[in-house]
Amino acid sequence: MTTTPAHPAHATAHATAPTGAHAALHARHRAVTPAWLATYYREPIELTHGEGRHVWDAEGRRYLDFFGGILTTMTAHALPEVTRAVAAQAERILHTSTLYLSTPMVELAEQIAGLSGIPDAKVFFTTSGTEANDAALLLATTHRRSNQVLALRNSYHGRSFGTIGVTGNTSWSPTSLSPLQTLYVHGGVRTRGPFAHLSDADFTAACVADLEDVLGQAEGTVAALIAEPIQGVGGFTSGPDGLYAAFKRVLDRHGILWISDEVQTGWGRTGDHFWGWQAHAAAGPPDVLTFAKGVGNGLSMGGVVARAEVMDCLGANSISTFGGSPITAAGALANLRHLLDHDLPGNARATGAVLAARLRAAAAELPAVREVRGRGLMIGVELVDAAGDPAPQTAAAALEHARELGLLVGKGGRQGNALRIAPPLSLTTAEAEEGAGLLIEALHRAGREPAGSERPR
Ligand code: PLP
User: Fold this and answer.
1) Are strands 54-57 and 47-51 parallel, antiparallel or unpaired?
2) For ligand 1, which residues put their CB under 6 angstroms from it?
3) What share of the chain has pLDDT > 90, as a percent?
């Protein structure tokens, strides 16, 4: 595990960085980038370098990073193995395209196919999670000759025209136009909605009944169900373990494919399992699995794994200019090797338990905290007002206070009222304790602010 302390030279170099650098860059950013490109913080920051679980901003401030650039810095910042692998590959050749054979790409595909649990698996590499889900939807709809798809309410699957069409979380869904006919089912949020009061078994039975009901209303063939095992952007919510096994029994009767979107839950982040689908293990593996984010530790890589029969169903040619490029595959191979050799999924389980226990204990003194949820190093903290309604202002205030205290966390949920905690999986116990302390203090400070005080979403 990488536990390298911050290099003192960095702190010194950045102590003299100009203040006001962020404000100037923000003005330029706003002038030339889309108005809908969301940034965190009232005064957005630029992160200029990182080491281990720490990052530094352009004005010289150091932070403990509990968000990893949206769950993407999976092992550690500046992991020497990844840096060396990328540098060595860059010295040889940066780019070739999928028109030519590539040893790093084939090696990585072999490893991921083996890890996926999917029999007779083939892998197609993309450059993002959006593109991976788009490819999965193309495969499923072509294989099944139907554009009808099931998705979960409160879901997020990407920003392209196709993936917006299966994104139930409307705050990230700017158009209702879609190439797909999507039917939304229950099950992504255990503690809210019409089934929240039920036991796990009854909740699952109610969701299955809802699925059957929706299928009864579908016109002809349905291609696939796409679902995140733990909803990421949705605020780290999920249904009970085993829900997808119960869904799968229904899907199998109709021949409907199950696409597990593991863009956030993959690679052991949930601690208990290498893939999120394994919390529903009685279902067996999904027909299609998509991944991205952590595998490249920040290199632009995503992909789809599917049974050969499904993967090979496309009749026309396809290429990817950048997908599985030598440089991203070399970096991802080194990253994955480090993760497995150092049992970082096991570390995620252990340090995640420390963090969750600290936060749950503190919640008793924090009336705004409705729920601490998630597993491993994927922990959500849902915030509400005195009436028990979502409190996005409190979440925004907590995010600001955490940053002021030296801690970066994320935010999510349909109303933006859940904090998302997802540090690199090499987090040490001392860092888990330190981060928990900072976050608890940030929550106390946010709770003391008048309700409705102005904070950005
Ligand atoms: N699927 C899930 C579950 C995600 O959380 C995301 C991004 O947050 C995506 C897909 C889209 O991935 P990307 O932003 O790499 O396109």
Assistant:
1) antiparallel
2) 70, 128-130, 133, 156-158, 228, 232-233, 261, 263-264, 292, 302
3) 93
